[in-house]
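User: Hey, my collaborator sent me this sequence without any context and asked if I could get a structure. I don't really work with proteins. Can you help?
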Amino acid sequence: QVQLVESGGGLVQAGGSLRLSCAASGRTISSNRMGWFRQAPGKQRELVADITSGGSTNYADSVKGRFTISRDNAQNTLYLQMNTLKPEDTAVYYCALGSIWGSSWLYWGQGTQVTVSS
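Assistant: No problem. I've predicted the 3D structure and written it out in structure-token form, which is a compact way to encode the shape of the chain:
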């Protein structure tokens, strides 16, 4: 059984930084696309960033230039470095493990709260 456990969320002032981690267990993630999603109250879950097994990255327009997704396959861990945080970044952040063969997302973490105060 695959488990994804996020950590690193918290309360930060606008302009500050946080680093989220997602530790995977139950299987190695090196062959899978991995992603970070977020869901704000009253809004749909949205993709923030994803990274392929080869290290290619993709970002939502709203976070480009501020967030960086990375992975450490040796540690079986996914990261999201978030800089210059804005109040509109406030949400629950989830990591997800994608299918090797397609575009679907197979497993999700439980989420970590990020709150940015103005």
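In plain terms: The longest strand covers residues 18-25. You can pass these tokens on to your collaborator as they are.
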